[in-house]
Amino acid sequence: MNGWAFHNPVRVRFGRDALDDIGDVLAGRTYVLVTYGEDPFPAFAQRIAAVAGPALVVYDSISPNPDVRLLEDLCTRLGTLDTMPEVIVALGGGSVMDSAKALAASHGDWQRVARRLADGTVQDVAALPIVAIPTTSGTGSEVTCWATVWDPEADRKLSLAGEDLYPQAVLVDPGLVAGLPWGVTLVSGLDALSHALESLWNVNANPITRGLAIQAIRDIRTGLRRLRQDLDDAEARDLMSLGSLRAGLAFSNTRTALAHNISYPVTLRHGVAHGIACSFCLPDVMTAAIGTDTQCDAALVEVFDDLQEAPERLRAFLQELGVDSNPSTYGIDNAQWRAIVADAFVGERGRNFIGHIDRFPFHDTARRCA
What we know:
alpha/beta, Rossmann fold, 15 helices, 49% helix
């Protein structure tokens, strides 16, 4: 067996009412809260204030897929405070986590973030400490050291990364996701499923990440099936929270791969929600991966039982959830699809993929798109 390493410094607290541990985690430190403005987030913010004291300020105008304009405005507003907070608290889904990481890196100066996006290095001081409280089961950002920044005007997705962007602590409270509607549950859950699968067919995979990913896939498949029938299924919410966390820990070490590189133009140019954009193509990506690496193949057998049937079983699962794996469903014609996939293979995340473009089922995809 080749040598490998696994590293994740985030302190995790998991369980119902874990949110109430925020007072112990902050330990009297001043903080800024990054969250959403709509229900139920004001009530969650009040729970935090009751045990940890009031935030210096609450930024609750976070929108999906935070872009450079929104983040520049938030960082500028942070810079107007009389004193910098000691901690940034992120309460929400992936967009909140990404925004909080940008704020933490900025210290109130957007140019610190802009320079870091440009060359990938920490310019002068490390990011402010982050405490993450996820309210969806999907992003995994609470245990990773990077954030996505969207630049729609330039038609690109940027990545903010660095060891100092790992949250200091995360509180995973399945009770916070209990009220999520099916649409958000589905999109976030499929994002987590993609994280887990992408960490399997990955050049950076190792025995720890594979074990985490296999169990994450099982958790998420079971959880989504049960929640589709009953959104009030508390045990299924627990499974989704745990599955998302396991997937996050797995891809915190491997990063994502081809499906995520495919997803970025699908979101930017066709307006498809990230969780759908990175998951509808998974059966075809799996087809390209099968037969390339024996350990990946063995992991897929553990999850799907039959290696050759695995792509169609995954396709059937997505269809069961109402997700079509046909690119044309999302407004992508055959020529666009071929270009998106070809570009994805040579992109940064695409280079993490173990497969080769010659194995990608373009002919099957072309027939489905016709």
